[in-house]
Structure formats: C-alpha cells, structure tokens
C-alpha cells in the first residue's frame, strides 16, 4: 500500500498529467478527449482554475506521502455549494496502480467533500465495465444506486454508467 496526500493541481504537475493521456483506460473511462489535442492538459487546468474561482470545481494532484512523487489526479466537479452536493473522480498513473492509491485518493476526496464543503451527497459515475473503479467505490463505502443506460459520454460514445453515492449518514 502506498500512502498518498492531495495537493492543489498546478503547472508543475502538467507533464505528469499529459503522460497519463497515453493510457487506454484513461482514454476509455474518463472525459479526456480521444485523440487528445496537443497541449490539452493546459486548457483542462484552466477549466479547473476557473472552477476554483467560481467554486464549482477543484483538481488535486495525488502525490506520494513520503517522497512527493506524482501518483495521479483527484477531481471534484459539479460542486453545488447551495445544494451541498458534488461529483468526484480519480485517475491513477499506470505505474502507480494496484497499490491502493485510488482507494486512498477517494477516501481523502470524500473527507474533503464532507469537511470542507459540508456536503450532504457525494456522487460517482462509473462506466459499468470499469470493475477496478467500482471496487474503489465499494472500498470507501459508496453505495450503488442504479445505472444510466446508453448515456452520451464523449465524441459520439455512449456507455452505461453506474451511479454510486455516499451520504454523511451512511
Ligand atoms: C480505476 C483506477 C483509478 C484504480 O486505481 P488503483 O490505484 O489501481 O486502485 P486500488 O489499488 O485502490 O484498488 C483497485 C481495486 O480494483 C481491483 N482491480 C484492479 N483491476 C481490476 C480489474 N480489471 N477487474 C476487477 N478488479 C480490479 C483491485 O484488485 C483492487 O481491489 P481490492 O481493493 O478489492 O483489492 C485506475 O485503474 C485508473 O486510473 N484507471 C483509469 C481511469 C479511471 O478509470 N478512473 C475512474 C473513472 S470512474
């Protein structure tokens, strides 16, 4: 098991973010466009920086708690501060997978959502085929709620999405 911590995503992480765009699971299971336009990581960071300013999004780099090396991304989007709910996402760099990093990331993101945003509902949308991500959700105590069928995801791609959630009372 690798222990991890979150730090705000910034320019210094962009090369590591771009390196993950070559991974087929990242292209398949995340909203990263496929093919990835050159320099897209910078545009994407700008969207999250805008979200930080208006309170609707937050992006964290997941780093090794011991040596600070980059392990992946922890994301919060669709933050509804008035409605006190949000959606979370996570991506682990291929070389850091299988060591509990995503599970730790989701634990940290979830604690942040409940403590910093005072959330009453946290949601995950997971492709029905993404067995590893479903394990991560279950590990942290999220509950499966139902499946959105043939949901338009990106660039003409439709997929079945499982919705999982966690409430402070769970
Ligand atoms: C999904 C992902 C985040 C998992 O990261 P990770 O750090 O390897 O995850 P963890 O080590 O915390 O745990 C993964 C769990 O899934 C299991 N798992 C891994 N690959 C699996 C597979 N192909 N089928 C079933 N289970 C699998 C592991 O055994 C582990 O289960 P356990 O905790 O019960 O032992 C990573 O593969 C990834 O970044 N994928 C691409 C992006 C993505 O899919 N993001 C999520 C979008 S909803």
CATH H-level superfamily: Gcn5-related N-acetyltransferase (GNAT)
Strand order of the largest sheet: 1-2-3-4-5-7-6
The secondary-structure class comes to: alpha+beta
Give me the oligomer status.
Answer: single chain
Overall morphology:
globular
Radius of gyration: 15 Å
The total of helices stands at 5
- CATH top level is Alpha Beta
Beta-strand percent range = 35-45%
Compute the number of structural domains: 1
**Bound small molecules, deduplicated:** coenzyme A
Give an overview in words.
- With 170 residues, the chain is of the alpha+beta class.
- It has one domain (4-166): Aminopeptidase.
- The chain is built from 5 helices and 7 strands; from the N terminus they run βαααβββαβαββ.
- It has helices spanning 14-20, 24-29, 40-54, 101-116, 131-139, and strands spanning 4-8, 58-64, 70-80, 85-92, 121-127, 143-154, 157-166.
- Strands 1-2-3-4-5-7-6 form a 7-stranded mixed sheet, sandwiched between helices.
- Strand 4, helix 4 (101-116) and strand 5 (121-127) form a beta-alpha-beta unit.
- Helix 1 packs across helix 3 (40-54).
- The longest helix has 16 residues, at 101-116.
- 27% of the residues are buried.
- The mean pLDDT is 97.
Topology:
Blueprint: E1 4-8, H1 14-20, H2 24-29, H3 40-54, E2 58-64, E3 70-80, E4 85-92, H4 101-116, E5 121-127, H5 131-139, E6 143-154, E7 157-166
Parallel strand pairs: 4-5
Antiparallel strand pairs: 1-2, 2-3, 3-4, 5-7, 6-7
The chain binds coenzyme A.
Give a short overview.
The chain is of the alpha+beta class. The protein has five helices and seven strands, in the order βαααβββαβαββ.
């Amino acid at each position: 098991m690798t222990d991890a911590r979150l730090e705000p995503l910034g320019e210094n992480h962009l090369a590591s973010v771009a390196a993950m765009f070559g991974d087929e699971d990242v292209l398949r299971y995340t909203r990263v466009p496929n093919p990835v336009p050159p320099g897209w990581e910078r545009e994407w960071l700008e969207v999250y920086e805008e979200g930080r300013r208006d309170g609707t999004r937050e992006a964290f780099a997941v780093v090794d708690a011991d040596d600070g090396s980059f392990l992946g991304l922890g994301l919060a989007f669709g933050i509804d501060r008035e409605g006190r709910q949000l959606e979370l996402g996570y991506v682990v760099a291929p070389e850091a997978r299988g060591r509990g990093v995503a599970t730790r990331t989701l634990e940290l993101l979830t604690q942040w959502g409940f403590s910093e945003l005072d959330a009453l509902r946290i949601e995950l949308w997971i492709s029905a085929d993404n067995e590893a991500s479903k394990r991560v959700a279950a590990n942290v105590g999220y509950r499966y709620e139902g499946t959105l069928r043939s949901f338009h995801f990106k660039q003409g791609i439709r997929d079945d999405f499982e919705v999982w959630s966690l409430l402070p009372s769970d």
